Amino acid sequence: MKDDSTLSASDTTVWGRRRFLNTAALAGLTMGAAACTEKESGAAPATAPAAAPDAAHAGANATHLKPGELDTYYGLWSGGHTGDMRVLGLPSGRELLRIPCFVPDALVGWGITNESKAIMGTKPNGALRYTVGDTHHTHASYKDGNYDGRYAWINDKINSRIARIRLDYFICDKITQLPNVQGFHGIFPDKRDPVDPAINYTTRVFCGGEFGIPLPNSGLEDAGTYRSLFSCVDAETMEVRWQVLIDGNCDLVATSYDGKLAASNQYNTEMGARYEDMMSAERDACIFFNIARIEAAVKAGKFKTFGSSKVPVVDGTQATNQDPTTALTAYVSVPKNPHGVNASPDQKYFICAGKLSPTATVIELAKVLEWFDGKVEKLDDAIVAEVEIGLGPLHTAFDGRGNAYTTLFLDSQIVKWNVDAAIKFHAGDKAAKYVVDRLDVQYQPGHINGSQSETIAADGKYLAVGCKFSKDRFLPVGPLHAENEQIIDMSGEKMVLLADHPVRGEPHDFIIFKRDLVKPKQVYSLDDFPNAVKDPKDSGVVRNGKKVTVKMTSQAPAFSLREFKVKAGDEVTLILTNLDKIEDLTHGFAIPNHDVNFIVNPGETASVTFTAGDPGVYWCYCTHFCHALHLEMRTRMIVEA
Ligand SMILES: [Cu+2]
Question: How far away, in angstroms, is 602 Cα from ligand 1 center?
Answer without folding.
Answer: 11
